[in-house]
């Protein structure tokens, strides 16, 4: 595998804030990984994602495929917790919006949108208005809209945080299915360690006061659902792995 994203000496300070939120951080995300970033609220996870998206300035080095990240770009698609869809457009037009802006032909857009509606389980719903959709359906549209651009990197900030447990589990499976079938790398922020264990190939940890990623651990349990695992031995192993992650997130914990 080769590094898709590389950060070194990465420092991010908001204007008027007394000190940097992220300081001298270093990490890399390899092509093909699902890289989950976990850590306590307010430690700077979304700040790193915003810098990766090109939404905010940073100091130090932050590159994608060797090029310094400067400004937003379709190659880094972002899915947030609450899908900000265009309410005046249909589902299909929301999904095809980026392609239209990029000058794709009407036929090419229609074909890709039809494929994506199927990928995210919304076949036949392209003409719906976004206000007719449930929360889970809206997130499917948001994911399809990002996938339409076929970005090498998908940035997901608590994408399923507002969904009920059942929908959340289905959406996690959807992301895993998409990741397996497409040539995409995923950077996922989550509060939910079980979500990280289920989805990620690698789990990166930030602590409350580190201002950087302190550990990146390969996850041997990707694809397992820690909440429903039936094998007691495996359940115990996952439990130990989860405890170790909790300890890494909060070293003061017993
Ligand atoms: N635009 C901003 N201006 C000033 N400070 C900010 C801004 N955005 C975030 N912060 C501060 O930066 C710190 C890190 O915020 P960030 O959103 O990156 O944390 P997080 O780890 O993603 O938290 P959460 O898990 O709650 O979403 C917090 O103290 C927050 O208050």
Explain what you see:
This protein has 254 residues and is an alpha/beta fold. The chain has two domains: 3-75 and 152-249, 3-Layer(aba) Sandwich (Rossmann fold); 87-150, no CATH class. It has seven helices and ten strands. It has helices spanning 45-53, 91-101, 106-119, 135-148, 165-181, 193-199, 232-249, and strands spanning 3-12, 22-30, 34-38, 59-64, 67-68, 76-79, 153-157, 185-189, 202-206, 213-218. The strands form two sheets. Strands 6-7-8-3-9-10 form a six-stranded mixed β-sheet, with helices on both faces. Strands 2-1-4-5 form a four-stranded antiparallel β-sheet, covered by helices on one side. Strand 7 (153-157), helix 5 and strand 8 form a beta-alpha-beta unit. Helix 2 (91-101) packs across helix 3 (106-119), helix 2 (91-101) packs parallel to helix 4 (135-148) and helix 3 (106-119) crosses helix 4. The longest helix is centred in the C-terminal third of the chain and has 18 residues, at 232-249. The chain is globular and about 55 Å long. The mean pLDDT is 93. The chain binds adenosine-5'-triphosphate. Adenosine-5'-triphosphate binds next to helix 1. GO terms for molecular function: ATP binding. It comes from Lacticaseibacillus mingshuiensis. This is ABC transporter ATP-binding protein. Residues 5-233 form the ABC transporter domain. Keywords: ATP-binding, Cell inner membrane, Cell membrane, Membrane, Nucleotide-binding, Translocase, Transport.
């Amino acid at each position: 595998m080769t590094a898709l994203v590389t950060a070194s000496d990465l420092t991010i300070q908001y204007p008027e804030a007394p000190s940097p939120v992220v300081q001298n951080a270093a990490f890399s995300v390899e092509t093909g990984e699902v890289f989950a970033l976990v850590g306590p609220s307010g430690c700077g996870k979304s700040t790193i994602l915003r810098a990766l998206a090109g939404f905010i300035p940073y100091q130090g080095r932050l590159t994608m495929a060797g090029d310094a990240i400067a400004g937003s770009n379709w190659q880094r698609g972002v899915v947030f917790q609450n899908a900000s869809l265009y309410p005046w457009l249909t589902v299909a037009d929301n999904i095809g919006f980026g392609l239209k802006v990029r000058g794709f032909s009407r036929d090419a857009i229609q074909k890709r949108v039809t494929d994506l509606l199927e990928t995210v389980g919304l076949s036949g719903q392209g003409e719906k208005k976004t206000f007719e959709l449930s929360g889970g359906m809206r997130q499917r549209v948001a994911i399809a809209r990002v996938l339409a651009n076929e970005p090498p990197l998908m940035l997901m900030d608590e994408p399923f945080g507002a969904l009920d447990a059942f929908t959340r589990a289905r959406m996690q499976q959807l992301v895993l299915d998409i990741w397996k079938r497409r040539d995409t790398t995923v950077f996922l922020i989550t509060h939910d360690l079980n979500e990280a264990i289920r989805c990620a190939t690698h789990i990166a940890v930030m602590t409350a006061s580190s201002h950087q990623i302190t550990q990146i651990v390969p996850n041997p349990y990707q694809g397992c659902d820690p909440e429903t695992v039936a094998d007691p031995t495996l359940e115990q192993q996952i439990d130990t792995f989860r405890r170790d992650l909790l300890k890494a997130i909060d070293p003061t914990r017993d």
